[in-house]
Amino acid sequence: MYGAPALPPDFVSLPYANPDAPKGGRVVFGNTGGFDSLNPFTQKGTDPWQLRFLSYEGLMGRSWDEPFTLYGLLAESVETAPDRSWVEFTLREEARFSDGSPVTVEDVIWSYETLGTEGHLRYRGLWGQIADIAQTGERSVRISFSEEDRELALLAGMRPILKKAQWEGKDFANAPLSEIPIGTGPYVVADYEAGRFVTLNRDADYWGSGIPFRRGTMNFDEIRIEFYGDQTVLFEAFKAGELTVLREFNAEKWATQYDFPAVTRGDVIKTEIPHEKPSGMTGFAMNARRAPFDDWRVREAMLLAFNFEFINDTVTGGAQPRITSFFSGSELAMHSGPAEGRVRDLLDPFADSLPPGTLEGYALPESDGTARNRANLRRAARLLTEAGWSVEDGVLKNAKGEPFRFTVLLRQGDTDMQTVMEIYSRALERLGIEAEVQKVDDAQYTGRLAELDFDMTPFRRALSLSPGNEQRLYWGSEVADTPGTRNLMGMAQPAADAMIDTMLTSEDREEFVAATRALDRVLTAGRYVIPIWDFDVGRIAHAKELKFPDQPPIYGDGPQWMPDVWWYEE
User: Fold this and answer.
1) Can you say how many angstroms the Cα of residue 483 is from the centroid of all Cα atoms in its chain?
2) Are 237 and 30 in contact, with CB atoms under 8 Å apart?
3) Looking at residue 349, what DSSP letter applies?
């Protein structure tokens, strides 16, 4: 995107992979909930989230040690126009699907069109920005874009390529569980039982095992995913040896509950992985499409009532720092205090429509750490009064006499979030607010979110050091009311749209960083999410036979780290 790739044309492997890693062994993961689909590319159904990372590939692949940099995968070469109005890829002659058939330009064109019109929402945005896609040679395809957006050439390189012939005469968007898309990736589904487990085997004839991008990666012979009803049962399965790896997101649990016999014997190792990526946002999203959360004063009152310091101490032992903005912990994060310099220049045209604090400076409320949180609750009560709410007989009501009631939608088995809500709801009761927690299974939860049928719900958006077009899916006005949108909070803010446009058209790093910092201000001061704790390091407990390279990528843990570059060694 900016400058030159860090690796030379003759690089041997990615810098965080061990090119001499042995092949073999197995790794067993655990997921909560279930699945009713093995097609990760459609809007319908729930699939194992790991599948699209293991079995499918794009024309190019990301280096997780560099923002905004791709290297050849299915494509042996790439060429772009000076203004990036088009990009042309040439396929590797040896590129094959898992059934041994060659990858053709026809497959590429079909994949782009099908995913762009029938696939999951995350794939549709790019198709709307493609003016033309055409074959230019036996193994070459050129994609021309309909608008100025410098990231589109990179996005085009990362679309998964599927086999056209598999879907002739079939309904791609509504395929049954048994119809698993054929991909080009290193792993294929070998066995499964709906809702209980999926087993993937490494393809012994995988076409890309010798290319530099893949050396030292995808080393396990077998990857198995077991499914459990909730996190508690899953943890017990790990302690019993049914699973060989577990990611832990609670620092207190990591410090106090990983002392079971397998750990003390040394059969299970605790590993922490540092990273340099933004915090992203983890917390509780408020649905701003509907009252009462369509009023920023109400959303600020909800933030004031959320006693983070006390809740964090109760749930994580106070060991995890709070997320302070969407890009906190990175150079892309907004600075404290008033907006200055280029950030101010970008936001000034929208001054009249920006939430209070965007330009002046905004910081999340802090409590005194006590259970009562009196000062913040008093401030919350004043804001609610300004917004037209008043207490009658201990119940907060609006001008129509309607009580302030809302529901919190949770997945069954999400024990940490249940604990958080139990504490939070008691604080809300003191304001006269009733919060009802609704716990539903995975299928119901996915369906409710798709239909935007919730008041408040847990929210997680992992953000990278290379934010781009996905920001439109996360916060863009155009998709705010679209069923299945990733813009869960229903944010529709012209300033955010403009900052994303600037990010996508900036020709230098300085302008890009300024636009991202400005977007961070709009998001944070909008008070759409109640942030909780940051995952400041990755935490993985694993069988001692599971090994990994010494140097993680700057992005730290994730599917690109575990299982991609780990290996099995007795």
Assistant:
1) 18
2) yes
3) G
| Whether the Cβ atoms of residue 479 and residue 487 lie closer than 8 Å to each other | yes
The type of residue at 322 is: R
Q: Tokens 């004031």 identify what position?
A: 304
Token code pair at residue 550: 């010494």
What is the CB neighbour count within 10 angstroms for residue 210?
9
**CA atoms of 345 and 348, how far apart (whole Å):** 5
Q: Are 552 and 534 in contact (CB under 8 A)?
A: no
Strand-pairing partners, residue 143, are: 87, 133
DSSP state of 102: B
Mean pLDDT of 507-532: 96
pLDDT at 125 over 90: no
d(CA 484, CA 126): 17
> How many C-beta atoms surround the C-beta of residue 266 within 10 A?
8
Q: What is the pLDDT of residues 337-373, one digit of tens each?
A: 999 999 999 999 999 999 999 999 999 999 988 889 9
CA distances from 511 to 84, 325, 332, 474 (A): 18, 20, 11, 21
The secondary element (H helix, E strand) that includes residue 451 is none
pTM of the full structure: 0.78
First to last CA, the chain: 42
Task: Give phi and psi for 100, each to the nearest 5.
Answer: 95, -10
Count Cα neighbours of 65 within 13 Å in the Cβ-side half-sphere: 14
521: nearest Cα among 354, 397, 400, 389: 354
Q: Are strands 434-440 and 405-411 parallel, antiparallel or unpaired?
A: parallel
In angstroms, rounded to a whole number, what is the distance separating the alpha carbons of residues 216 and 560?
Answer: 12
pLDDT digits (tens, 9 = 90+) for 430-454: 999 999 999 998 889 989 999 999 9
Confidence at residue 414, expressed as pLDDT on a 0 to 100 scale: 84
